[in-house]
Structures are given as C-alpha cells and as structure tokens.
C-alpha cells in the first residue's frame, strides 16, 4: 500500500563502484564461461572489423577494376568471415545468456538465504509482496542486464574503438568530423540517462506496491467481500496500477527522447561525412573501396553509439535493481548466533531475571517491565492477565525473536543469547494463537518441525493432540491437503494439528498460547490429559483466558501492563489476588 513507507528503498542509492564490484564478484565465480564469452566477444568484434576490409577489396579490386576472379575471391573471403562470425556469435550468445541466468539464480538464492534468517521485526516493517518483488522482478532485470545489456555494451564499445582506428587509418580528415560528433552525442546521453535512472527506480517501487496490494486483498478475500469492500478495493488497486503506469510513462518518454536525440545527432554527423567524403572520391583523394569501407566503419561506430545510449539507460535501470538486491543480501540480522555457542543439553529449566522489553516499532512503550520468574524442568507455568498485558510477548522473547532491553533470560542456566539459534529453538516448541499451516498435506504439516519422523510417530502425536479421530474421518486422512494457510480446516482442527506438530518435536519447553481456545471442552480435556501424561518430560508454559484450563498449573503468574501482579497456585491466588479472582469470575461466567 502506498501509505506504508518503503524501508527497503529508503536508503539513498549506493555508489556505483560497490555495485560494479559486487557484479564482478558474482561473475568471477564462473571464470570458464566468462573466458569463453570474452574470447567469443573479441573474436566476433575483430571479424566484424575485418568485414570492412573485405568490402574495400571487393569494391576496388573486383567492381572498380572489373576483375571477376578478384570479385570471386573477395566474396569467398567475406563468406568465410560470415561463417566464423556465426560460430563466434553462437558461443557468445550462449555463454553470455548462461551467465545472466546463473548470476540471477545465485542472487535470488543469496537474497532468500539471508532473508529467511532475518529478525522478525524486519518483516513488520517491510511488506512481503515488496520483498518478493525484489527477489523476482529485480533479479530478472539483472538477468537481462548481464545476459544481454553488458555484452551489448562491451561489443559496441569494442566495435566503436576498432571502427574509429580503422577510420583513422583510412581517412584522418573524415574521422575528425566523426570525432566532433561523438561528444555532442555523449553529453545528452549522460544527462538524459541520469533522469531515466531515477525514474526507473521509482517505477520498480510502484510495481512492488501493486503486487503487495493485490496479495493482501487476495489473502483476506473473505473479509474484503464480507465487508462489501470489493468496489473500494478495485479502486485502490486501480490507483496503484495507474500510479505505476504514470511513472513508467514518464520513464519511457525520457527514454524515447534519449533515443530520438541520439539518432538525429548520429545521422547528422554521417550526412556531413558523406558530403565531404563524396567530394574526396570525386576529386580522387579517396578510392571508392576506401570510401565504402569508411562508410561501413562509420555505420558501425554510429550504431555502436546508438546501442550504447540505449544500453546505458538499461544498465542504469539494472543498477537500481542490483543496489536493492545487494541491500537485501547484506542486511544483518539483529538476532544472530553468538560467536562460540555454549555447550548445551536442554532439560527445560527457564529463568526470567528482571526482563524489560519494548517493541522496536514503539520503543517508548514498555510492554514488559522487570519480569522475573523461574520454571523447573517438568513444571507447568501459566500466564494469565487481561488482553494486551504482554503474555505472548514473553513467548516471543523466549524464542529470541526479539532481545530484551534489560534483564536476562536463561534456559538451563545458560543465557539464551549465548546459545545458537538452532540449539535454542530445538529445545522449544510453540503453539501460537493463530497457528499457521502450510499448503501441504496434514501429515506434512505435523512433520514440519521434524521431517524425518515416522508415520507411527506422526499418528501418536496427532492422537495426543486429539486430532487423530477427525483426521481419519476425512476421506484422504493424513494425506488430505489443508489448502493455503489451512483454509480447508476449522479453527479447532488447525489448533490440534499445531499441537501435534509441537509435540512431535519432543521439546523440553512447550509454549502454548491460547492453544485450545477454539476447542470444545471434550477435545480440550483430551489434550489436557495427554499433557499431564507428558508431565515430567517437558516444561510447559501456558497462556489461557479460560482459567479452568490452567487450574492445575504448578505456578500461575498474573500479569497486568507487563508486570507480575501476583504469583502462586490457583488456590493461593484465589485468596491473595483480587485481579485473579476477577479474571476467574469472568472466565467462569
Ligand atoms: N510486533 C509488535 N509491535 C509493536 N507492538 C506490539 C507488537 N506485538 C504486540 N505489541 C503490543 O504489545 C502489547 C502486548 O501484546 P501481547 O500480544 O504480548 O499481549 P497478550 O497479553 O498476549 O494479549 P492477548 O491476551 O490479547 O493475546 C500490546 O499492547 C500490543 O499492542
């Protein structure tokens, strides 16, 4: 949505040098193909230049001298050159396109590899559609840059240089006229090119907005339709599309103007040259063959300049795309593995020691203040409190999605930020408030945290989570496809699959955030019995609004405004805490 500022692109455009260095680094990994491409490029350019000499030979020795033998010889020479050029061009095209595809695939992977490990806060600031457009659209721009533009630029620069040398050798006077034209061509290219570049970047950003807008509306399609917002959504989308079109239109207008300017300047110069050169041939200073060869080289130079103008603006466009990709690849995660992770074997003892925290997006609003508690291995701790008190935030901190601003969190006596993220997360399993399922089968969803689990283990976990019976009642059973984000299942069914998924990983610390809120009391009792059977094998932290579900917890923390208001067992709290009594009465009523 356009109202959300784009952080991805907030940074001012990077200096071109690091961009070129990165590009070179990426290409440098494929030295063999690069060498083939370079050799083919040099050869075909050299051969093209030789063609001019073939033409001179054909005109002077064959046509003007009226010698059929020489004409034949010249033509066979030209034909041989053409065949060699065909082979060279084949190699060049293949190698260069291969490099384009390879580098964009490498970049796509690097960007995704870095993204998937970034701190979750990053994804709150940057919309998923926008990030995906970086990985797909920007890498495609790059593929065309390396796969054609760079090669075209190099080829045309070579031709221009070679053509100019040959022109000088043929007629320095005429060359002078061309040389005067060149700066007149290059100056407007540079100025207009810069404008095209900035518009290109804007154009890419607008496109990303369009993608994000569509993704959100489609993901929330039922909300959009139920609230009768189809027409307004269409208008909003249309505005995004039109604003993207408008920037694109301005970009192509600049670019068209750039191309038109180049054509006029180049052909103006050529006409001047033909006028002067034609007079030289008439007065006998130049031979007809030399004049033909000169025109051929001049055309090469002119076409080279024209193509360069076009390619330069494309290179600039891709420069923007590459800058953004490099930004993505080099982003450091705020949550990272420590340099030397501690040696660790989890038992499930958890300690919060004076923990305070505010979300990075609202640094001045403390969500947790001086929170301390202790859970022994195998114990169950319940967190209760009004909505927004900070209970789910406690779970986020345990999983190290954020760092506390003060205080320490320890798992089995080790600070969690001195454990590697995989050590920490292997010890924990979570059932979130809104369980997320992937568009795969039920079995695959349960296996998500332990892909190598056997069918038996999957069935057992489902049984403990009270899911086995309903899964078997579905015609395809465990192979049933759950739809995107699990839309084909009910809320309670999704919750039970999420519980099965968590139990299957055999965690030492199980975090249940309103995990049974959508279940009927029968299914809920079934899960509670299963959890009691597992007591001792894992510690359990439960957030619940229905207090009847946590009455048996070893310890209950009553949290309000991010602080512990009271702590104790159910019976103790009923007498000691007014807030607990209120919450209890509300949840019972
Ligand atoms: N990503 C976030 N960025 C900024 N603020 C957040 C974020 N997530 C939660 N908050 C804020 O932090 C506070 C605590 O939220 P939290 O989800 O921990 O509450 P809770 O006690 O679990 O509530 P509930 O019982 O409704 O689930 C709330 O005021 C919420 O608005």
UniProtKB/TrEMBL annotation:
GO biological process: oligopeptide export from mitochondrion
SMART domains xref list: AAA
Location, primary (coarse class): membrane
Regions that span the bilayer: 76-99, 174-193, 257-276, 291-312
Domain of life, per lineage: Bacteria
Record GO terms (molecular function): ABC-type oligopeptide transporter activity; ATP binding; ATP hydrolysis activity
Record's bilayer topology term: Multi-pass membrane protein
Start and end residues of each ABC transporter domain: 350-586
Matching InterPro entries: AAA+_ATPase (IPR003593), ABC1_TM_dom (IPR011527), ABC1_TM_sf (IPR036640), ABC_transporter-like_ATP-bd (IPR003439), ABC_transporter-like_CS (IPR017871), P-loop_NTPase (IPR027417), Type_1_exporter (IPR039421)
Record's subcellular location: Cell membrane
Keyword list, A-Z: ATP-binding, Cell membrane, Membrane, Nucleotide-binding, Transmembrane, Transmembrane helix, Transport
Signal peptide residue numbers: none
GO cellular component, one term: plasma membrane
Domain ABC transmembrane type-1 residue range list: 35-317
Protein name: ATP-binding cassette domain-containing protein
Lineage of producing organism: Bacteria, Pseudomonadati, Pseudomonadota, Gammaproteobacteria, Oceanospirillales
């Amino acid at each position: 949505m356009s109202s959300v500022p784009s952080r991805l692109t907030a940074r001012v455009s990077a200096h071109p040098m690091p961009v070129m260095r990165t590009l070179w680094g990426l290409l440098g990994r494929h030295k063999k193909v690069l060498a083939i491409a370079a050799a083919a490029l040099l050869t075909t350019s050299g051969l093209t230049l030789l063609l001019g000499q073939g033409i001179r030979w054909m005109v002077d020795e064959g046509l003007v001298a009226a010698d059929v033998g020489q004409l034949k010889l010249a033509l066979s020479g030209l034909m041989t050159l053409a065949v060699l050029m065909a082979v060279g061009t084949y190699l060049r095209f293949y190698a260069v396109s291969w490099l384009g595809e390879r580098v964009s695939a490498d970049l796509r992977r690097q960007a995704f590899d870095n993204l998937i490990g970034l701190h979750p806060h990053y994804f709150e600031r940057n919309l998923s559609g926008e990030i995906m457009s970086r990985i797909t659209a920007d890498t495609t721009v790059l593929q065309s840059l390396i796969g054609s533009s760079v090669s075209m630029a190099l080829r045309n620069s070579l031709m221009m240089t070679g053509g100019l040398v040959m022109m000088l050798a043929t007629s320095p006077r005429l060359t002078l006229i061309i040389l005067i034209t060149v700066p007149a061509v290059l100056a407007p290219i540079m100025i207009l090119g810069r404008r095209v570049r900035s518009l290109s970047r804007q154009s890419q950003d607008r496109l990303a907005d369009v993608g994000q807008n569509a993704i959100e509306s489609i993901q929330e399609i039922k909300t959009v339709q139920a609230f009768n917002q189809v027409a307004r959504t269409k208008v909003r989308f249309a505005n995004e599309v039109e604003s993207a079109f408008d920037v694109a239109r301005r970009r192509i207008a600049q670019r068209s103007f750039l191309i038109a300017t180049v054509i006029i300047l180049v052909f103006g110069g050529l006409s001047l040259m033909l006028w002067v050169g034609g007079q030289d041939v008439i007065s006998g200073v130049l031979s007809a063959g030399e004049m033909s060869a000169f025109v051929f080289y001049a055309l090469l130079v002119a076409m080279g300049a024209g193509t360069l103008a076009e390619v330069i603006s494309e290179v600039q466009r891709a420069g923007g795309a590459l800058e953004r990709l490099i930004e993505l690849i080099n982003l450091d995660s705020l949550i990272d593995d420590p340099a030397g992770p501690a040696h660790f074997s989890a038992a499930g003892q958890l300690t919060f020691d004076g923990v305070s925290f505010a979300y990075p997006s609202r640094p001045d609003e403390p969500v947790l203040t001086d929170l301390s508690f202790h859970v022994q291995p195998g114990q169950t701790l319940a967190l209760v409190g009004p909505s927004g008190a900070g209970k789910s935030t406690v779970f986020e901190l345990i999983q190290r999605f954020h760092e506390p601003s003060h205080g320490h969190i320890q798992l089995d006596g080790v600070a969690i930020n001195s454990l590697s993220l995989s050590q920490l997360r292997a010890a924990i399993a979570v059932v979130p408030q809104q369980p997320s399922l992937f568009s795969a089968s039920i079995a695959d969803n349960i296996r998500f945290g332990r892909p190598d689990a056997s069918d038996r283990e999957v069935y057992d976990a489902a049984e403990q989570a009270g899911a086995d019976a309903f899964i078997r009642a579905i015609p395809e059973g465990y192979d049933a496809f759950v739809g995107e984000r699990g839309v084909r299942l009910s809320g309670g069914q999704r919750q039970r699959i999420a519980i099965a998924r968590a139990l299957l990983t055999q965690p030492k610390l199980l975090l249940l955030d309103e995990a049974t809120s959508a279940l009927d009391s029968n299914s809920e009792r079934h899960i509670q019995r299963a959890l009691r059977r597992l007591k001792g094998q894992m510690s359990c932290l439960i957030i619940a609004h229905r207090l009847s579900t946590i009455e048996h917890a070893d310890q209950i923390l009553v949290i309000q405004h991010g602080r512990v208001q009271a702590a104790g067992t159910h019976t103790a709290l009923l007498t000691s805490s007014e807030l607990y009594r209120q919450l209890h009465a509300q949840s019972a009523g």
